[in-house]
Amino acid sequence: MPPPAAPKSGDALFASVERVNAELFTLTYGAIVRQLLTDLEEVEEVNKQLDQMGYNIGTRLVDEFLAKSNVSRCADFKETADVIAKLGFKMFLGVTATVTNWDAEGTSCSFVLEDNPLVDFVELPDTCQGLQYCNVLSGVIRGALEMVSMKTEVTWVRDMLRGDDAYEMRVKLTKQVPEEYPYKDDD
Amino acid sequence: MIVCVAVVGHQNNPLYLQSFTEADDALKLHHVVHCSLDVIGERVNNPKRNAPALNETFLGLLYPTENYKVYGYLTNTKVKFIMVTTDLDVKDADARNFFRKFHAAYVDAVSNPFHVPGKKIASRSFGARVSTIVKSFGSGTTA
């Protein structure tokens, strides 16, 4: 049996997956958000929908990520966060995030993105000031982590579309759900 | 120095108009821009040269009025950029350069998913970029 391949670095991962034109991706996402705004009309509803869409993407994405990247089991949440920031974001968005602001228990951290391909060319009009334009990203992280038994809450702290200098999302691990087996052991 | 830039849509509807001098002249500048649209229409319908140039975007000096010069640029979607300047000598290369940068800024503004094509350009960063491009226009000519 051939020895298992070593886990790849972020750049190698990014080079090995199929890529799509960045402008096409940005314009497609922009069109999705615009259409949601036209259909739902309420900014809060659109935020929820984006989060739900992200959740659905995340649950499927995590399998592809683990298959392509070959990372070993993470020992704790800190390692998980590092893997998401360096490998996950790099593989799917082509940018790396930095992990900062760990709290005392190690269950809550921030991902800071300087560069975000979803928001190129975007300027929020005055009528949509409550819109969390990148909410799909928070859904993706929540969905992916839930598939590996971690329940999290993700909120946006800083948003460049609102005038801040970077994108910061706060991820808080609420519960580590142990594996549940559908049958009882003692039967 | 540039006194006014304008973006006019393909149905000759104004999409963006920014003047860089005192507000009194604003109406006169609007009028100048409006008249230049006629000149563009003429140029487009009656090409002067027998062999049309490959790059038909830069229309060049449209017409000189008493103290202004008006330059035009046409994109392939029939969107027109007009630039009104008070400079006495404007190098062709400078004007082309200006319009190239202006075109890039326009494309980025229009790629905003919240921009409705055909409506006025409401992007603040477009305004800021245009101001920067306008400011750097004059400095290129001074030796």
Automatic annotation (TrEMBL), chain A:
Keywords linked to the UniProt accession: ER-Golgi transport, Golgi apparatus, Transport
Compartmental location: Golgi apparatus, cis-Golgi network
Predominant localisation class: Golgi
GO biological process, one term: Golgi vesicle transport
Pfam families for the chain: TRAPP
GO CC field: Golgi apparatus; TRAPP complex
Record function comment: May play a role in vesicular transport from endoplasmic reticulum to Golgi.
Family under the similarity heading: Belongs to the TRAPP small subunits family. BET3 subfamily.
Oligomeric and partner information: Homodimer.
Name this polypeptide is given: Trafficking protein particle complex subunit
Lineage of the species this protein comes from: Eukaryota, Viridiplantae, Streptophyta, Embryophyta, Tracheophyta
TrEMBL record, chain B:
Cellular component, GO, one term: cytoplasm
Name of the protein this chain belongs to: Trafficking protein particle complex subunit
One GO BP annotation of this record: endoplasmic reticulum to Golgi vesicle-mediated transport
Pfam families xrefs: Sedlin_N
Species: Zizania palustris
Family under the similarity heading: Belongs to the TRAPP small subunits family. Sedlin subfamily.
Cited InterPro entries: Sedlin, TRAPPC2L
